[in-house]
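Notebook entry, structure prediction.
Reason for the run: the old model in the group folder had no record of what sequence produced it. Starting over properly, with the input documented here first.
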Amino acid sequence: MNNIALITGATSGIGLATAMKFAENDYSIIITGRRKDRLDSLEKELKKEYNVKVLSLCFDVRSLSEVTHNLGNLDDEWKGIDVLVNNAGLAVGLSHIQNGVIDDWERMIDTNIKGLLYVTRVISPGMAERGRGHIINIASIAGKEAYENGNVYCATKHAVDALSRSMRIDLVSKGVKVSNVAPGLVETEFSDVRFKGDRAKAEAPYKGMKPLTGEDIADVVYYCASVPAHVNINDVTVMPASQATATIVHREQ
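New structure, fully documented this time:
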């Protein structure tokens, strides 16, 4: 069996591009997500395009029982995960704190923080026991700054940033690397979810500028995973050339 990469939230955007990137480099791939049709389609594409082994697991990272059932009972050939990419995450809604929708808050907290923790809790003991492995957490510029209407989403991504640093401390003596990758504007389904399908609002953040792509972030993730064994990329912030901060973007008129 080749090296194994597990990518959560692999049905679109950064997760899908990351699965493709690792498969291109001869990794066996475990892909997870909630949309079975997309998982099945990606599995077929990876096998056809790169001739690698693929295991697709359809479950919701927000459910501890589903995470444990699917990832805690892997066959022996899939247990030795070398790279875990905690990519599953989302932003929902964009409102001031006093107008926040509780269900939106819970979806973000349950996915971005608790889901990441559930998956890490199931996978990291094996890495620690084997004395090797790499956890790469997909964070955000929202985990480095706070901005108007970002409140809970920013809080969840600040949590990811803090967890990445804490994981590194906890696992450094076990030979397990931890990296934090914090993108700026990436044009994926992210904005569609945040604006709940309102296409005009979803397209607005990318107007007049060239945003990052899922493939751009996948390149960074793979670079983090491919450096020499004695090197660890602790933290990377990746922005479009025209973006300076979470809210300052140069747009062509």
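Summary: The mean pLDDT is 96.
The old model has been moved to the deprecated folder.
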